[in-house]
Specification:
The chain has helices at residues 11-46, 53-78, 81-84, 100-103, 109-139, 141-150, 161-166, 172-210, 226-229. Helix 1 (11-46) crosses helix 8 (172-210), helix 2 packs parallel to helix 5 and helix 6 crosses helix 8 (172-210). Mean pLDDT is 76; it is low at 212-230. It contains nine helices and no strands.
């Protein structure tokens, strides 16, 4: 059965959510998650001999986990139905005890997530600016031409060396429509780029939250298929 979220009528809506997330949400949230959690953790480690650091480390882990769960919920809304299935369940808000700092390495997964998410967020933001914002601005070229021409300012005319060479027989207004068509292609390409970056970010989240070794070294038996020692 086809998932309704994958139907064509949700195409533009999903693109809009992805563009909003990558332009407005992901970079500020990644900076907050990185700076807040890492700073608190560093202070906690430094102040551990004074016993003040342990609560700070605990607060850092709680903050990183809460922000990661919030980011995961936002990401889920930007993905298609099939891609949503790749997201792991939200990490439970279990109490973090002081002994868990040594005995439970998995509690540090949210910190690792924000360390890796920041460069991913930068790439997502750059892709959204390049393909979404720039593409939409180029699509609006005819409207910009008419608005400027109303005040006696002409664009896409003889002063435009590139268009004059590529489209020498066209009027400036006609050239603006060719430019708009190019912008439409850029926006269309942007959907594929954003969709791929969202899937990559989702894979990152899944790898960090649910990462566990395929097999223990002691369990490995040479020559056996993977499924027999997993």
């Amino acid at each position: 059965m086809t998932n309704p979220a994958d139907s064509p009528k949700h195409f533009i809506d999903r693109y809009g959510r992805q563009a909003f997330y990558t332009l407005i949400v992901t970079l500020p949230l990644s900076l907050i998650g990185f700076v807040f959690s890492v700073t608190l953790l560093a202070l906690g480690i430094g102040l551990s001999p004074l016993f003040v650091g342990l609560p700070l480390m605990q607060a850092a882990l709680y903050a990183a986990r809460g922000l990661m769960a919030f980011d995961q919920k936002l990401m889920r809304r930007t993905l298609s139905g099939s891609a949503q299935e790749t997201l792991p369940p939200v990490m439970p808000h279990e109490r973090i005890k002081y002994r868990d700092f040594i005995t439970t390495p998995k509690i540090y997964a949210p910190l690792l997530y924000w360390l890796l998410k920041l460069p991913v967020a930068l790439l997502q933001f750059a892709a959204a600016v390049t393909f979404v914002l720039a593409g939409i601005c180029i699509v609006l070229a005819p409207a910009v031409y008419m608005a400027l021409n109303h005040y006696g300012i002409e664009i896409f005319g003889g002063d435009d060396i590139v268009l004059s060479w590529l489209l020498p027989d066209m009027e400036p207004f006609q050239r603006s429509w060719i430019v708009a068509a190019v912008g439409s292609v850029i926006v269309a390409i942007g959907f594929g780029v954003l969709n791929q970056t969202m899937r990559s970010s989702t894979a990152l989240l899944a790898d960090v939250v649910e990462a566990r070794p395929k097999q223990e070294a002691a369990d490995y038996v040479p020559g056996l298929p993977v499924e027999q020692y997993n």
